[in-house]
Recover the amino acids of this structure.
């Protein structure tokens, strides 16, 4: 687990502080670098780079709101020079589906669909084809940063604190390679601290004991309020409590003990069962 956390922190740092090099000047690369993590971006970039030289659009057939596009792809195989792939585009919902099934298997769009995007003038990857598990923000900020105890009941306050620490952490990580800009950023933070903290009166932060007292309804440290919603439970009988000199048996134990007893014929239902005519279910149903 420690190694996994270290690798996760290292990958998050590389994704947030490094800029990938664009191979082909297409609008898909900047958008992919903005939404995908660094490792997934390189896989998407590989598919985009194969479009210019290897993929060519052959023809388009439209029928009943569905466009069927044939894309030829050059391969390195000696026997097969070109490979045909069929892409179906629905004009109703704007969906694309390729016969190579690359998106269904890997989770990123294939080079054939990127080739078709040029025909329809699409400059960004549609949101429906950006899976959540490949995004930069797949892990919520509140799970990565520590949570802070506050004296407000509004949950928006907690999210504001998390956003502030996340922004500061991102800026420090981004400027970690430039000592001059990092020093300027520190000077600006000191100015903000003097503006919002040094010139404001001190407020006593609530302690852990204060939160427990508030939860229990205590108004004053030594005076309890008349209304207390937390009460001691009553009428509890647990297995093994020893009340009445008998141990409480579980349902499984009672069923196993009942199954070992021999069956006898009931005079009411005339079947071989574990009851008699006094407690027969059929007799109770007739009543």
């Amino acid at each position: 687990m420690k190694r996994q956390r270290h690798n996760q922190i290292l990958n998050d740092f590389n994704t947030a502080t490094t800029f990938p090099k664009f191979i082909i000047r297409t609008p898909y690369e900047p958008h992919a670098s903005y939404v995908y993590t660094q490792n997934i971006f390189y896989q998407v970039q590989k598919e985009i780079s194969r479009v210019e030289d290897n993929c060519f659009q052959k023809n388009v057939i439209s029928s009943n709101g569905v466009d069927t596009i044939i894309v030829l792809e050059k391969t390195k195989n000696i026997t097969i020079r070109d490979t045909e792939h069929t892409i179906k585009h629905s004009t109703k919902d704007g969906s694309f589906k390729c016969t190579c099934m690359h998106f269904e298997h890997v989770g990123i769009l294939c080079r054939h669909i990127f080739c078709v995007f040029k025909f329809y003038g699409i400059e960004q990857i549609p949101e429906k084809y950006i899976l959540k598990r490949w995004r930069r923000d797949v892990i919520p900020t509140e799970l990565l940063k520590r949570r802070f105890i506050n004296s407000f009941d509004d949950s928006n306050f907690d999210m504001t604190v998390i956003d502030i620490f996340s922004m500061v952490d991102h800026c420090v990580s981004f400027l970690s390679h430039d000592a001059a800009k990092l020093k300027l950023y520190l000077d600006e933070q000191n100015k903000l601290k003097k503006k919002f903290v040094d010139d404001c009166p001190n407020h006593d932060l609530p302690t852990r004991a204060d939160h427990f007292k508030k939860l229990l309804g205590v108004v004053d440290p030594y005076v309890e309020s008349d209304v207390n919603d937390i009460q001691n439970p009553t009428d509890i009988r647990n297995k093994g409590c020893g009340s009445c000199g008998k141990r409480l048996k579980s349902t499984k134990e009672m069923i196993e003990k009942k199954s070992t007893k021999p069956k006898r014929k009931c005079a009411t239902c005339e079947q071989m069962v574990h009851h008699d005519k006094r407690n027969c279910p059929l007799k109770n149903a007739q009543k």
User: Anything to note?
Assistant: The radius of gyration is 34 Å. The CA atoms of residues 63 and 275 lie 71 Å apart.
